[in-house]
User: What shape does this take?
Amino acid sequence: MTATAPLILIPARMAATRLPGKPLADIGGVPMIVHVLRRAQETALGRVAVATDSPEIAAAVRAHGGEVVMTRADHPSGSDRIFEAVQKLDGAAAHPVVINLQGDFPTIRPEQIRAVMSPLVNPMVSISTLAAEIHTEEEATNPNVVKVIGSPLGDGTLRALYFTRATAPYGDGPRYHHIGLYAYRREALARFVALPPSPLEQREKLEQLRALEAGMRIDVTVVDEVPRGVDTPADLETARRILTS
Assistant: This one.
């Protein structure tokens, strides 16, 4: 690891309505949050830590050799939680990029995490994220699947123009399923969390629209598939089959 390596932070909390205690759900004898931690460590990109307000999550991560930073319980979003964690872990600003990796992606592959760094080669890009092409009508029409609309840049990336729960864009051509993994330039994260919620963010219930409405550039790396998130008991069983097969 170098002084310019990114800091990978995994926000985690216990208050999941559809799957209580989700970060500690057992998958092959290991808590889900530890699976995500290991995928992040396997990238060899840089320092990795779990940001949480839960002593139970902290204990589980430390029991498996992971680093933890304790954060306040009243954060409105994962972005706010990682911003507090960054200030606590890296007050000297040694890490110019912060990766926000959701704690409910136990099946994400290390190369997918690494792919989020590619757009930041362009100094005009403030935030980068991931997407995968949609292949089914059910996915295209499901409002729980967030779509990113972007201009192709010709190298497997898009410049994001909008994010929506609607089926978009209209007409023939690919549609893209947004994957909620972000890499922020340090100054972009500070600016983002200081902004008030924006009108389109509140309407679509999509935090990333706040950045676009403020004129921040988001580029998207297109990867081959969407990692399976865990939101329900059925999702958890799917993750168990994938990771224990």
User: Anything to note?
Assistant: The chain has two domains: 1-104, 109-182+197-226. The radius of gyration is 17 Å. The longest helix spans residues 78-89. The chain has a mean pLDDT of 94.
